[in-house]
Amino acid sequence: MTNLWEDLETGPNPPETIYAVIECLKGERNKYEYDKDVPGVVLDRVLHSNVHYPSDYGFIPRSYYDDEDPFDVLVLVEDATFPGCVIEARPVALMKMDDDGEQDDKVIAVPTEDPRYDHIQSLTDIPQQTRDEIDEFFATYKNLEEGKEVETLGWEDKQAALDAIEHAQELYQERFA
Fold first, then answer.
1. Residue 67 pairs with which residues in a beta bridge?
2. Where along the chain is Mg(2+) 2 bound (predicted)?
3. Of 152, 163, 150, whose CA–CA distance to 91 is shortest?
């Protein structure tokens, strides 16, 4: 059985074009996580706060970030896909975040195969309302979970996202190759 974290390439041309393995769906409160030991997507929990994912959310294969997890990616989509879906995506920004004292940044990407996102090439192309909704979600989604503290730390440009993906690939190679 294929392990989507270890067996799938980071992308066809990383860091400029990556694969995003979707775990959580736009509009839902279910927090799914890919379990490499199963391997498959399992329900981790239902979000305690009355919020929902602003877009499809998952991880980048063969990546490992400073929070000791695969690198997170939020893919802007019009319609939710499904847990385990692999989306070819183009990184356009990086949202900086601290989760319980650990750096837990999020790559923001758009699908390469959806012409509705062809015009989004960088952070400044993402509508301010969309950025505000993403920031609000990540700033509040753990508010009702006991002992959890999350802080969003602002936005960085496409180059910062590409650099962070390369960093996550290097960490993966150091730790698992």
1. none
2. 72
3. 163
Q: Look at the block and give the residue holding tokens 């063969």.
A: 62
Tell whether residue 114 is among the known ligand binding residues: no
Does the annotation list 141 as a binding residue? yes
Burial of 46 per CB tally in 10 Å (0-12, 13-18, 19+): exposed
Going by the DSSP 8-state scheme, the letter that residue 17 receives in this structure is B
The reported pLDDT for the residue numbered 85 is 97
Secondary structure (3-state) at 98: strand
Between CA 58 and CA 156 the distance in angstroms is 19
pLDDT tens per residue across span 55-96: 999 999 999 999 999 999 999 999 999 999 999 999 999 999
Q: Answer for the pair 157, 123: CB distance below 8 angstroms, yes or no.
A: yes
88 has which bridge partners?
19
Residues in the chain: 177
Q: Which residues pair with 102 in a beta bridge?
A: 99
The token pair that represents 138 in the structure block? 């990540």
**31 labeled binding residue:** yes
Q: Is 72 annotated as a binding residue?
A: yes
Q: Are 64 and 171 in contact (CB under 8 A)?
A: yes
